[in-house]
C-alpha cells in the first residue's frame, strides 16, 4: 500500500478508495510516510484527517472500551449458561457454540458501522430463527444431519458476520476482501492471546500448587471458559484499534508458510502414493484429505487477502499459483473419491454435503489459479486475484445455509 499511496497522492478519488478499502492499514502506512511528505498540502490535509483526536483513540474511545468490556462479559455469561441453568453441556455447546461468539461480533461491527435499525432487526430475527431451529432438532446419536447442521451453522453465522463487517449493504458491494484480511489478523491475535493465556494459566496453577491449593477444576470451569468466550471480542478490538500490531505480522506469516505448505503438500501426496493409502475406501483418510484441503485453501485465501502490488514479488505469486494448482489436484482426488463412494454405496447426507463443498472449492480454486496465473505473467492486475477470492463467498454462505436448515428436513433428520 505504501507505493499505491505515493503513486496516487495527487489523485484524491483513488486515494479515498484506498482509504475506504482498508482504513487501519492506510492510516498506519500513511503516518509512516508523512515525515517525507510534510511540504505537500494534500498530505497535510490527510494527516490531520487521519489523526484528529488520536490521543483519545489509541486504544479506542471510552465508549469503545465500555462496549468491548460489556460484550466480553456477555460472551462469558453465555458460555456459562449450562452451569447457571443446569443444562446438558454436550447438548448446549455442540448446538450453540457459534451463538456465543458471532452475534456479539456482529453487534460490535453493527454498532461501529452505524447499521440501520431495519438491518439490525433482520439479522436479529435470522439469529433467533437459527437458535430455535438448531435446538429443536431431535437429539439422536446417529443423526448425520444433526452433526452436519452443528458443523455448518457457525460457518453460516460467519458469513452473516461478513455482511455486518461490510456495513450491511446489499447495494454497492461488501468489502469481502477486507473481511478476509480481518479474519487473518484476528487469527494471529487470537493465537497470541491464547499463548499468553496458556502461560498465565500454567503459572497460576503452579503457584497455587506450591501452597497446597488445587484450583485446576475451578480455574478451568470459570476463568478459562469465560476467557475463551471473550477472546474473539478482545482480539477484534485490538485489531481494529491497534492495526499496526498485526498489519506487519500477518503478511510475514503468509509469505513464510506458503512455500512451506507447498512443499508439505507435495511430499504428502508422494507419501500417500508410496504408503498405498486409499481415499476411495478409507473414510477416515478421506476426511483427513478434506481437512487438509480446507486448511491449505484458507492459507491461500489469507495470503491473497494480505497481498498488495508492493508486497508480493513474482516469486511469491508463483508460489501461490503452484500451491493452488497442487490444491486443485488434492481437491480432484477428494472429489473423485466422494463420487466413487456415492456410486458404490449410495446417497447419504454426509456424502452429498462433502460433494457440494468439494464442487464449490474446486470451481473456486480453478478460478483463483487462473487469476494468479494472470498476475504471474503480468497479463492481469493483482486486484483481480482478490476479486476472485471474494466472488464465491456468498455462494459458500448459501451452501452452509442449505446444509444447516434444509438437510435435516430433506433427509428426515437421519
TrEMBL record:
The chain crosses the membrane at residues 66-85, 92-111, 117-134, 146-166, 186-208, 220-240, 252-273, 285-305, 317-340, 352-373, 393-413. Signal peptide: none annotated. Keywords: Membrane, Transmembrane, Transmembrane helix. This is DUF4153 domain-containing protein.
Amino acid at each position: 500500500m505504501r507505493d499505491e499511496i505515493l503513486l496516487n497522492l495527487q489523485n484524491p478519488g483513488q486515494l479515498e478508495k484506498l482509504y475506504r478499502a482498508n482504513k487501519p492499514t492506510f492510516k498506519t502506512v500513511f503516518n509512516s510516510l508523512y515525515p517525507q511528505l510534510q511540504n505537500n498540502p494534500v498530505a497535510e490535509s490527510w494527516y490531520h484527517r487521519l489523526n484528529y483526536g488520536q490521543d483519545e483513540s489509541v486504544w479506542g474511545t471510552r465508549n469503545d472500551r465500555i462496549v468491548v468490556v460489556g460484550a466480553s462479559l456477555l460472551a462469558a455469561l453465555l458460555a456459562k449458561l449450562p452451569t447457571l441453568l443446569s443444562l446438558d453441556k454436550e447438548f448446549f455447546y455442540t448446538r450453540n457454540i457459534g451463538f456465543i461468539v458471532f452475534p456479539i461480533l456482529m453487534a460490535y461491527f453493527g454498532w461501529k458501522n452505524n447499521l440501520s435499525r431495519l438491518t439490525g432487526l433482520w439479522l436479529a430475527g435470522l439469529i433467533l430463527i437459527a437458535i430455535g431451529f438448531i435446538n429443536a432438532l431431535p437429539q439422536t446419536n446417529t443423526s448425520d444431519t444433526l452433526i452436519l447442521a452443528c458443523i455448518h451453522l457457525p460457518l453460516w453465522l460467519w458469513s452473516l458476520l461478513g455482511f455486518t463487517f461490510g456495513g450491511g449493504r446489499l447495494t454497492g458491494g461488501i468489502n469481502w476482501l477486507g473481511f478476509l484480511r480481518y479474519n487473518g489478523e484476528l487469527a494471529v491475535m487470537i493465537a497470541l492471546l491464547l499463548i499468553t493465556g496458556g502461560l498465565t494459566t500454567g503459572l497460576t496453577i503452579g503457584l497455587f500448587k506450591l501452597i497446597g491449593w488445587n484450583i485446576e477444576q475451578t480455574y478451568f470451569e470459570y476463568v478459562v471458559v469465560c476467557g475463551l468466550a471473550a477472546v474473539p471480542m478482545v482480539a477484534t478490538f485490538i485489531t481494529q484499534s491497534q492495526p499496526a500490531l498485526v498489519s506487519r505480522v500477518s503478511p510475514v506469516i503468509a509469505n513464510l508458510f506458503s512455500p512451506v505448505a507447498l512443499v508439505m503438500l507435495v511430499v504428502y501426496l508422494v507419501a500417500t502414493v508410496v504408503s498405498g493409502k486409499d481415499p476411495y475406501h478409507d473414510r477416515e483418510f478421506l476426511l483427513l484429505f478434506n481437512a487438509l484441503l480446507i486448511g491449505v485453501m484458507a492459507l491461500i485465501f489469507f495470503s491473497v487477502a494480505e497481498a498488495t502490488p508492493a508486497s508480493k514479488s513474482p516469486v511469491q505469486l508463483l508460489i501461490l499459483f503452484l500451491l493452488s494448482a497442487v490444491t486443485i489436484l488434492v481437491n480432484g482426488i477428494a472429489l473423485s473419491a466422494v463420487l466413487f463412494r456415492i456410486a458404490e454405496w449410495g446417497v447419504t447426507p454426509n456424502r452429498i454435503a462433502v460433494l457440494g463443498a468439494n464442487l464449490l472449492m474446486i470451481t473456486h480454486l480453478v478460478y483463483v489459479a487462473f487469476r494468479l496465473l494472470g498476475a504471474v505473467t503480468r497479463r492481469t492486475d493483482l486486484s483481480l486475484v482478490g476479486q476472485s477470492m471474494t466472488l464465491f463467498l456468498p455462494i459458500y454462505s448459501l451452501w452452509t445455509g442449505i446444509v444447516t436448515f434444509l438437510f435435516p428436513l430433506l433427509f428426515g433428520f437421519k
